[in-house]
């Protein structure tokens, strides 16, 4: 464990954690703010809700594919390649999106390049970096890095709405591209050798499990790997099927566009402490108990959202924001820390990236199905039922992780 009495060891670890947090915030925060662009794109091009949400589905699918590619690239080329190449893809994806006119072009730039770019600089490389710097508080550190997604949505969703209102969606994407170009320039001068070194204090304690130090090929034949894969998949189907529709749904319930974007950002703000607290709690209590409680909050949030169309008041909305916001991403840090401990070693990044592919597939499927169910039913009720069912399956699978009661 890192001694917090020695600031020479503490400060670099905190700096690395802050770096991982910010990169996840920038990359995933912009991607998860696509819900703010949902109505402007739909109105501008006169596309159906399913057509526009399909862009996000492609993004999430490529985020999953990119997680696998990110893990393989990290194991082979190291962190510098991941972050510079990923940020380059994000610069191109968002910088050119303001000039797009056809749906397939949005698939290519926002979906494919945006998804792969975000995965190259997201939690996959962060996990492999942070395990070199943290030991006993690994769950807490990973939860903070993972919470960057929520922190990004908190600030970037309202900011994107303000940009859209003042400059339109086209120039808004141009501004985002310029921002990532600046980040790309700064990354060139980052101290990558120090990042990859880690601290020698924990290196001797990494390999203590029978699944430690195995390759991705070997992991594919282990039941544990596939349980993690399907937890990612089913949970993402439920959570992302809801979250993408939140802004449009609140407008449907009578709230203004600015209010809806603000509440969406507020939900994202709570995702940050929710993830951080979950990681802290998972370091103290049994991880499957903590995850089950977080799933209960998610169910309560979805039910509150359902009630909101009949009782359109701020009290019901507050229940949704608090419960869903605190729990939406809470399972991610738990899964990430479990994989980091169970599969620690040379193949960790690849194994985590491959399991995280389940999240990409699940999020893409959930978002696409939710949009399609709205188009055919003109309401959100069937979609809420769909999302609740698959969220329940994800919650159930946590109890089948081998040895979960001892971890």
Q: Roughly what fraction of the amino acids lie in strands?
A: under 5%
Q: Indicate the overall shape.
A: globular
Query: Could you state the CATH homologous superfamily?
Result: MFS general substrate transporter like domains
Structure classification: mainly alpha
CATH class: Mainly Alpha
The quaternary structure here is: single chain
By CATH, the architecture is named: Up-down Bundle
Order of helices and strands: HHHHHHHHHHHHHHHHHH
Number of strands: 0
- Tally of separate domains: 1
Please tell me how large the radius of gyration is. 20 Å
In the predicted model, the low-confidence regions spanning at least 5 consecutive residues are: 202-207
Helix content: over 70%
How many helical stretches? 18
The CATH topology is Growth Hormone, Chain: A
Main sheet summary: none
- What's the pLDDT, averaged over the residues? 84
């Amino acid at each position: 464990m890192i001694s917090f009495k020695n600031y020479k060891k503490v400060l670099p670890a905190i700096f690395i954690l802050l770096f991982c947090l910010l990169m996840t915030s920038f990359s995933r925060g912009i991607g998860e703010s696509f819900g703010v662009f949902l109505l402007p794109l739909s109105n501008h091009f006169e596309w159906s809700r399913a057509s526009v949400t399909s862009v996000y589905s492609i993004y999430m699918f490529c985020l999953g594919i990119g997680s696998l590619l990110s893990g393989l690239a990290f194991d082979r080329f190291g962190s510098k390649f991941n972050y510079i190449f990923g940020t380059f893809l994000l610069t191109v994806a968002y910088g050119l999106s303001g000039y797009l006119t056809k749906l397939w072009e949005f698939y290519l730039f926002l979906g494919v390049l945006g998804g792969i770019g975000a995965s190259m600089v997201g939690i996959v490389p962060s996990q492999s970096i942070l395990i070199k710097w943290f030991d006993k508080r690994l769950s807490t550190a990973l939860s903070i890095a993972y919470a960057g997604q929520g922190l990004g949505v908190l600030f970037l969703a309202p900011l994107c709405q303000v940009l859209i209102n003042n400059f339109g969606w086209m120039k808004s994407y141009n501004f985002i591209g310029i921002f990532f170009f600046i980040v790309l320039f700064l990354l060139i001068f980052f101290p990558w050798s120090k990042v990859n070194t880690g601290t020698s204090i924990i290196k001797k304690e990494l390999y203590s499990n029978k699944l430690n130090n195995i390759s991705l090929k070997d992991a594919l034949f282990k039941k544990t790997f596939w349980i993690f894969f399907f937890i990612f998949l089913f949970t993402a189907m439920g959570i992302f099927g809801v979250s993408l529709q939140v802004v449009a749904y609140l407008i449907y319930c009578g709230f203004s566009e600015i209010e809806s974007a603000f509440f969406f950002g507020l939900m994202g703000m709570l995702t940050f402490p929710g993830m951080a607290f979950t990681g802290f709690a998972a370091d103290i209590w049994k991880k499957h108990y903590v995850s089950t409680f977080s799933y209960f909050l998610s169910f309560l949030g979805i039910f509150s959202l359902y009630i909101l169309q009949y009782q359109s008041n701020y009290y019901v909305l507050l229940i949704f924001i608090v419960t869903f916001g605190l729990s939406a991403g809470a399972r991610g840090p738990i899964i990430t820390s479990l994989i980091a401990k169970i599969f620690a070693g040379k193949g960790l990044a690849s194994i985590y990236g491959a399991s995280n592919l389940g999240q990409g597939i699940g999020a893409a499927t959930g978002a696409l199905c939710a949009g399609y169910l709205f188009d055919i039913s003109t309401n959100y009720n069937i979609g809420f039922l769909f999302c609740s069912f698959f969220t329940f399956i994800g919650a159930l699978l946590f109890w089948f992780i081998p040895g979960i009661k001892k971890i």
